[in-house]
Amino acid sequence: MLSESRIQDLNQPLLEEHTLQFNFLSDALSRRQLDASQVVQQLVDFQVAIPSWALGTGGTRFGRFPLGGEPRNLEEKINDVGLLHQLNGSSNSISLHIPWDIPQDIAGLQQQLGEQKLVIDSVNSNTFQDQKDQHYSYKFGSLSNTEEGARQQAIQHNIDCIRHGQALNAKTLTVWLADGSNFPGQQHLRRAYLRTQESLAAIYEAMPSDWNMLIEYKPYEPNFYSTVIPDWGTSYSLCQSLGKNANVLVDLGHHLPNTNIEQIVGRLQQFGRLGGFHFNGSMYGDDDLTTGSSKPFQLFLIFNELVDAARDQSISNPTVAYMIDASHNVKDPLEDLLQSVENILSAYAKALLVDRTALYEAQENNDVVRAEEIMRDAFLTDVRPLVAEAYKRAGGALRPVAAYRAAGIREQLIQQRGKLSLSTGL
Ligand code: PSV
Ligand code: MN
Ligand code: MN
């Protein structure tokens, strides 16, 4: 862990410049009737969960290039998230993947979580790989498998995930299925849906009433002809059939190129069914890039929908669970997560700056150019001083990535855990 005073020392030489920039932006915003301090508070309150599988270097199917110092067990993963949270004050929770992260020493873990001011956000089931000693294979699907025994085994695994989560006070089960088919005709498409629906209903029944189920969709991979839950419509219909505690999870990487994701987000909120978000970025495929690195405008438009819906009294959407879902093979994963959070906070800040009254007016009057200009005004504002101020207010570093490097964290982790440490993960 970093000491608070170490972070303050690292902030010290940057403070004067930061204060100048923050005051300058606050003045400019106040001339637009915007209160910078209020925006900063909303950024401070925004928390995004870190998945345990993003803390080690990911791989491609061609190879993996570990950088060393990667967490070897759940305690070390929690420790890494604690470090991130110290640096940016925005990552106060961790998502577990079972069976990679089966909690053993519950009391010890609870104490560690408390000390690091963290909570467990969600548990994610894994029925996309066969585990050692498992009776039925998932080669042809899990919750949708044609074999009753395989489906029961996958249902039981999800119920076990809930039990593991309960031990650590989690309240969310996230279900992502690799089920689908690789060839035309391989699978009866409607029956596969019905079997999935039945299996999910059995899990939902077993879920405590204060738990939520998030159902993730994905149009391709690892199956390339069809997936059983390819799109938000399928997730939505499954949630509708299950009950109010099942909601749709939008993973940014799970869309075909050029999909209007912000519109999907708006629709789901309108229907009160947007349950969660997995942030990442992509050019071609899933989980490829750092969130907001290649399409920052799209990320802003997504946040614009979130902010707009949050202010609309006429709709009631559940609290949205935010998580980063990424896995990189060339960057230091901790640096990447700090960058991702920063891009997320920047997009959120910009969405908070949109002049909504003027925008609604322009929209009602079909003033296309004016509406677009309003969006551009917000998007082109340099919000870095707001984000830095939010870090500072939360006791974090003004520049988290620079502080991470200056504090020599990776070097220390390599010393403690070794050059060749490996973590499980995607
Ligand atoms: C596979 O596509 C995936 O990236 C999904 O997005 C899940 O959320 C994640 O793995 C963890 O199972
Ligand atoms: Mn995901
Ligand atoms: Mn994914």
Written description of the protein model:
By secondary structure, this protein is of the alpha/beta class. The chain is 47% helix and 11% strand. It contains 16 helices and 12 strands. An 8-stranded parallel beta sheet has the order 1-4-5-6-8-10-11-12. A two-stranded antiparallel ribbon has the order 2-3. A two-stranded antiparallel ribbon has the order 7-9. The relative contact order is 0.16. Bound molecules: alpha-D-psicofuranose and manganese (II) ion (2 copies). One manganese (II) ion (MN) is lined by residues 251, 253-254, 286-287, 325. InterPro entries: L-rhamnose_isomerase, Xyl_isomerase-like_sf.
Helix percent reads: 40-55%
CA gyration radius, whole angstroms: 22 Å
Largest sheet: 8 strands, parallel
Report strand order across the widest sheet: 1-4-5-6-8-10-11-12
The secondary structure category is alpha/beta
Ligands: alpha-D-psicofuranose, manganese (II) ion
The proportion of strand residues reads 5-15%
What is the first-to-last residue Cα distance? Answer: 26 Å
Q: What's the number of helices?
A: 16
How many runs of DSSP E, i.e. beta strands? 12
Order of helices and strands: HHHEEEHEHEHEEHEEHEHEHEHHHHHH
Residue-averaged pLDDT: 96
Can you tell me the residue ranges where pLDDT is under 50 for at least 5 consecutive residues? none
Q: Categorize the overall geometry.
A: globular
Oligomer: single chain
